[in-house]
Amino acid sequence: MTEARSHTRAGCLVHGQISAPELKEPIDCTIWDISYDGARLILPDGASVPDKIKISTPFSVQPREAEVCWRADGEAGIRLLETQSDRALAEQVRIAEESNADLVQRLRHVQRQLEAAEARMSAAAGSHAPASGRHGQRSTASRDRAFTYVLDDDARILVTDDDPILREFARVHLTTPSASVELAESAEQALDCLDKGEFDIALIDLEMPGMGGLEMIKRLRAHPRHCDLPIVVVTGRDDMSSIDLAYEAGATSFVTKPVNWRLMSYQLRYVLRAHRLSGAKQELGAEGSLLALTA
Which fold has domain 143-287? Predict the structure, then answer.
């Protein structure tokens, strides 16, 4: 596996499913540190896998046979076994990577536009500041930029996903001094959370046991209290039919797994600000109409 490590996609997280004759039912897992001949698996608590398994992902043409090389602390290392369909699978992986790379490039372009807009706003604010100390303020801001939070608006975020690892990553990466994150492992639990509290935005996985993400979105849009709630779909699928169904159900935006959490933070901030700006315009319009009627 050493030679293939030069091709490792470090930090790439993909949802996977493990199957084997010894297992009563498939086991969901998270695949990372992926190379062309193996990977590391993050297993659910208490899960145990046999020596010979089949592993599949959202991009798999068919499950791949693999051999478990090691096990430690809820993880396992696997070596992919040679099959006749290796070339077809390699081509499928290449296509999926190119598709995701294009999406990441578009999001990075949006990120650069947001940063440029922030820089223009900072420059405009600085032009009204006293001349003394301005250069010192700019150098301090430049030094501190790496430590700033993207989600700097007050927000309460609800994350709904049956993958415990993604839920924990969401809590770690999206929580800031002004943004809080609440987690739900099912659509049913999320709907209960929404009935009991107020949230500013919801992240919903499309594929979950029981009630799926599409059905959850439809129920929210049919509820007077949640019909305007911003909804970002988080999915392992990148085909247009799934995306179209999500938008038709009422989704506001979407991201694909594996999630780039920094870009996710920028997208959430954009969706939140756009939603709040739209609400403010509607309130101003209603006040203007009321004043016109009473004048």
Answer: Rossmann fold (3.40.50)
